[in-house]
Amino acid sequence: MRRGLGATAALLLAAAVLLPLWLVVKQAVTPEAESVAWPPTWWPAAPTLANFRLLLASVELASGLRLSLLVGGLTVLSTLAVSFPAAWVAARRPAVDRPLDALLLLARVFPAIALAVPLAVLFVQLGLYNDPGGRGLWLAHTLLATPFAFFILRAGIRRVPSELEDAAQLDGASRAGAVWRVTVPLAAPSIAAAALLVFLVSWDEFAYALVLQVTNRPLPPLLYYFAAFSYPGAASALAALMLLPALLIVALLAPAIRAGGLRGSGR
Amino acid sequence: MATAQFARVSKHYGAVVGLDDFSLRVGDGELVAILGPSGCGKSTLLRLTAGLEAPSGGEIRIGERRIDALPAHRRDVAMVFQSYALYPHLSVRGNIEFPLRRQGLGATERGARLTQIAAALDLAPLLDRRPAALSGGQRQRVALARALVRQPKLFLLDEPLSNLDARLRLGVRQYLRALQRRLHVTTLYVTHDQTEAMTLGDRIVVMHGGRIQQVDTPDAVYQHPANAFVAGFVGTPPMNLLPAELDDDGLTIGSARISLPAALRPAAHGRLQIGIRPEAFGASERGALPVLTDPTTIEILGSETLARATLGGLPVTVRLPGIVRDPPPRLSAALAALHFFAADASGARLA
Amino acid sequence: MMRRAACWALLAPLIAVQGLLLVYPVAYAVRLAFTDPLTGAAPTLRNYAQIASDPLFWRAARNNALLPLASVAVELLVGLTLALWLSRRFRGRGALRLLVVLPFALPEIVVLTMMRYVFLPRGYANAALLAVGLPAVDWLVPGSPLAWLTVVLVDAWHVTPVVFLVLLAGLAGIPDEVGEAARLDGAGAAARLWYVTLPLLRPALLAALLLRGVDALRLFATPLVLTGVEGVPVLSSYAYHQWADYGNDAAAAAAASVLAVGSVALSLPLLRQREGW
Asked: What ipTM was estimated for this complex?
């Protein structure tokens, strides 16, 4: 009886999570004509890669993908560069920790649109609005991602005893050298996790991208545009494409999630 | 190797005194033990010497070179941390070579130094292991090797034995002493354990509340404690300290009156503290300082027996050699065993 | 030994980024909101008067208050149920945990695009209803309670994993002995849940509530993508609408300021709790 209940619940859960995912994949490999037919099919009658071919041939995708990767990559670099020194000071200096913590939590709760609109007006003046190189969006994403990186890095650095840095200095390393040779390698897992998360934040981000890149669109607003103008085939193919990094991340984090030990990654 | 000199070094954290007016000269190759309870300033002294914190005032010199304003990595000072602070991501070899690489030594020279120190500290079979795969004693030897391999001018040890289990401690203590002698390296050894300080130190600096209480050889610290704090801190069990009153006729301790020959009288009058070591008492009934033992409270430790007793009604601890199941009801100590200290907060020794 | 100056030098980049990109736009938006866009007169409440006379603004404000409440309630209920279930020990628990967390890993816009195809009039939800003999439903009719509910459910589908993870970690922190002691004291399953587990889980529940509550106020893409601006308006999409469709920077800034003040005020307990999420 009890077992039956558990199995039913597991089945329902799997359906609720996987069915919508399956539908994206299905639509991506279904000819567009079939996708708009009524009633919709649950299984592709004649699977095809035509949607992907069409998508990959489009100029929008090429420039969107380039922009998303570029902004994501730059955001990872700038966010880590800005966050690591501050996280180190916060981890080693409790007096600095509190006010910094408050500043970053505030940044974290601030509504994106409330910032995106004035940023757009500001970027128009600076010539960064709708920038083909995504420089304006890069700045906005750095702002957005810094708190995530900071909190993860601070936790990672706190786990490295400050005595190891002391020891390295007595062993002849400068303070910066001690951090570089001892703290950075020991905090490497946290740095990697922060980089991964920051990339994902940028890759997934919709509101700033929608406002700041009106025609030079990275992937999220491009998908919105495809879907709004009812290209279900292209939209689903793009959605499926955008799932890939996300699924990769889940695969990487899977052991931690299975153990129930994942904290501090909320966004 | 070199001497180390501290001249009026102090460290304040806001209103809190970490170290106050610390002056000391450590001779070439000398091992000075810094002894005191936690919070006495001994760790602050090490951190100031190492360059991990900046002093509020005073000068520190190694040889003729003033180092107190230099960053840690330019001081040529090595330290063994209480937790050992081994680099967990490096092998034993990587840990020991770390300071050599920072000095920019070539591979040949590094290899030679590594082989030499590994042989001296029995580390040769462990070189490729990570610290996590070592026992406590092995980690400690790696920490020593890392500190000594670059032949520092001054060697600092921060409670190096406190993370070892009791059985290992004795062996490592003797080993440390022999090693330090052999390498003839000027050393500051911080500890709260008086046995370590007594057995290892050429001299002992007893500290309390950020201030030096006494600087002396181990036997002088034991035999002539400079004040009541040192008397109460050094010795197991500690010296008995009792309030007393001194007048022209003699000494009043609780309800006991004791006449004091002029030769033993301190140059003081009125209220003071007397001190008597527990081991000063013997079975002789004729000593000048009689105590009554309480046979219900004896503690037999094997090599010695501790008993509670009263002197003029005031409680004292008595230490007798060997196993004594039935201590004699009366014991006594010679008057010469008395120490006199001021009754005020300084507790200074009265000559 | 770290000099104050060195300390500040290391903090400077972060403070500059946060300062320039957060404080400056906010200050700019405040000025914009209180300046008459036509005459340049300042300060004026003209922009606030303008949005206050717009019924869409009031619908957005009401939705922005009620949607987070409903959404967070659903997430806490579902998240707690799942966390309690998956904190038990049984085979396959790890895989089920992965399944629960999966939606949160997906890009928001992908989730919404997907869900749009599910809830469109000729979408999969209606196909499923037809297949079991029920009539089709208009899920996303602008302004309808059903559209409102759909937004809540889709949002919950995406972010319940956050609540789940926080509560799962909280449950892991409760020692088994406590439950065992309660069992020996004669407490049944319901009593153990009510008198032992839930009180001990309070900090985690509170953390999840605050974290999600603050996030839910910023709701933007879900109602926008599913229903368009006027379907289920919220303050973020209203501000976006004023800016993108009318080019009215000042009204957008005024609407955004209402939301910003609300979010920051509600996030103060989170700041006080200061846990680094």
From this structure: 0.86
Contacts A171 to B, Cβ<8 Å: 73, 78, 98-99, 102, 146, 150
Query: With an 8 Å Cβ cutoff, is B13 touching chain A?
Result: no
Nearest to A164 among B79, B85, B99 (CB): B85
Specify the long-range contacts of residues B307-311, CB closer than 8 Å, at least 24 apart: B309/B281, B310/B254, B311/B240, B311/B242, B311/B253, B311/B254, B311/B256, B311/B276
Reading chain A (267 residues) residue by residue, the pLDDT tens digits are 567 888 898 999 999 999 988 988 888 898 887 877 788 888 888 888 888 888 888 888 899 999 999 999 999 999 999 999 999 999 998 888 888 888 887 777 788 888 888 888 888 888 999 999 899 999 999 999 999 899 899 999 999 999 999 999 999 899 899 999 999 999 998 999 899 889 989 999 999 999 999 889 999 999 998 887 767 888 889 999 998 888 887 788 777 777 765 444 333
CA B264, CA B274: separation in Å to the nearest integer?
A: 12
CB C219 within 8 A of CB A111: no
pTM of the model: 0.83
Q: What is the rounded CA–CA span in Å between residue B333 and residue B314? A: 15
Closest partner CB to A114 (pick from C29, C214, C215): C29
CB pairs under 8 A between A and C: 262
> What are chain B's partners, defined as 3 or more CB pairs within 8 angstroms?
A, C
Residue in C closest to B53 by C-alpha = C1
For residue A259, what are its two tokens? 């153990």
Asked if the Cβ–Cβ distance from A260 to C239 is below 8 Å, we say no
Range 35-64 of A in CB contact (< 8 A) with C: 36, 38-40, 42
